[in-house]
Amino acid sequence: MSMKKLMLILIACLIVACTQQKASEIAPDEILGMSKLWEKGGEEALESVMKSHIGDIRFVEDVAIAGYGKEKKSVTLWITTYPNSSTAKIETERMAEAMMYFEDWGKYLKKEKVDGTEVYSTLRYARHYFWSNGYCMFYIIPRNLNESEVKIIIESLKCGGFPWQN
């Protein structure tokens, strides 16, 4: 094999390896034994997010929303992907700061560490949790789950990222 062909193959592999997953590809098929019951992706998911937000939604690459459930337990999961991990972290912090100005959202906003990850939580009819990991922001609303189950979900949801994407 010529050196030119080898270099082309190597470059193609690098491009494939550096391509971010779509948000819907990151959403697991199952969470804590709860099956995925529905999912929205792309423009449909972004429209849903825009309807539920007051502030600007910036730098978004992709969005997925999925609902999971089994018996009386359920989780709604939002995944937003950004160009890189720095942007995901900044936009997560910006959302937390914006919540401070909205009654219950700010009144109950807390920040804690879960397995080394900074996780925000707030209360509006049910507890909401959100955090960044790699180039993603995750947002969950668990129902009828205990704290240890929520912690397992937070620890299990991961998003790729590369050191040079900061």
Blueprint (SSEs and pairs):
Layout: H1 3-18, H2 23-26, E1 30-31, E2 34-41, H3 42-51, E3 62-70, E4 73-81, H4 85-99, H5 103-107, E5 110-114, E6 117-124, E7 126-133, E8 136-143, H6 147-156
Antiparallel strand pairs: 1-2, 2-3, 3-4, 4-8, 5-6, 6-7, 7-8
Q: CATH topology, what is it called?
A: Protein Transport Mog1p, Chain A
The percent range for helix content is 25-40%
Oligomer: single chain
Let me know the average pLDDT: 88
End-to-end distance: 36 Å
Alpha plus pi helix count: 6
Radius of gyration: 18 Å
Approximate strand percentage: 25-35%
Describe the structure in your own words.
This protein is an alpha+beta fold and 166 residues long. It has a single domain (20-161), classed as Protein Transport Mog1p, Chain A (3-Layer(aba) Sandwich), CATH 3.40.1000. The chain is 36% helix and 34% strand. It has 6 helices and 8 strands. It has helices spanning 3-18, 23-26, 42-51, 85-99, 103-107, 147-156, and strands at residues 30-31, 34-41, 62-70, 73-81, 110-114, 117-124, 126-133, 136-143. The protein has an 8-stranded antiparallel sheet with strand order 1-2-3-4-8-7-6-5. Strand 7 (126-133) and strand 8 form a beta hairpin. The longest helix is centred in the first third of the chain and has 16 residues, at 3-18. The termini are far apart. 27% of the residues are buried. Mean pLDDT is 88; it is low at 12-17 and 162-166.
Task: Please give a handful of descriptors for the protein shown.
34% strand, eight-stranded antiparallel sheet, Protein Transport Mog1p, Chain A, 8 strands, 166 residues
